[in-house]
Design goal:
This protein has 186 residues and is of the alpha+beta class. The protein has two domains: 75 residues; 99 residues, no CATH class. The chain has eight helices and four strands; from the N terminus they run αααααβααβαββ. The protein has a four-stranded mixed β-sheet, with helices on both faces.
């Protein structure tokens, strides 16, 4: 009699968490429930494990517990890129219309745009690096810093280091923001 109630309770919890995950409104909820949304098949295995008996149930429960612990460690214990800090710093520092922001790699634009920057990134399709380096103001390079990686970390950073004057550098968790004085057009 207890197994059907347990199974029903697990189904309700799985459906509720899936619904909450789909309706999340904040980045905190995104982080907290990303493990659930990506691990939905695991929850279905857990529900199926409730119907197993003996050693099979213990094995499945142990595997799921190890998976939950590992996922929790990845969400909480592993340092994340500080995009909120990067965009906040640039929002207070960038002179809109004069300065430009270059992201390397350019696919970081999705994360950069998530935090509502005042200056859109020009990397990739809009301008070439040489075009972005010409004009008034500062070219702000946002580049990833991975533990143990060599500097410069990208071809863009190497080119900027060789061709422009670095005026300031601000480190963030796993990211660096470097400001280069742009060259005026002749």
């Amino acid at each position: 009699m207890q197994t059907p109630r347990l199974l029903a309770a697990l189904v309700v919890v799985a459906v509720t968490l899936t619904f909450v995950t789909l309706r999340r409104k904040s980045f905190w909820l995104d982080e907290a429930f990303s493990a659930w949304s990506s691990g939905r098949p695991a929850s279905e295995i857990w529900i199926g494990a409730a119907t197993l008996a003996g050693r099979a149930r213990a094995v499945v429960t142990t595997l799921i517990a190890v998976s939950v612990i590992a996922t929790t460690w990845m969400v909480i214990g592993v340092p994340k890129d500080d995009w909120r800090g990067v965009v906040g710093h640039l929002n207070h520092t960038v002179r809109v219309g004069t300065d430009v922001v270059w992201l390397d790699p350019k696919w970081d634009s999705v994360t950069y745009d998530y935090y509502s920057p005042v200056a859109p990134a020009v990397s990739g399709a809009r301008l070439s690096l040489e075009q972005a380096a010409t004009g008034e103001g500062i070219l702000w390079l946002v580049v990833q810093r991975r533990p143990g990686a060599a500097t410069p970390a990208s071809p863009s950073e190497a080119w900027l280091d060789a061709n422009l004057t670095l005026t300031r550098e601000v480190p963030f968790a796993r990211i660096a923001v470097k400001g280069y004085q742009r060259v005026t057009a002749r």
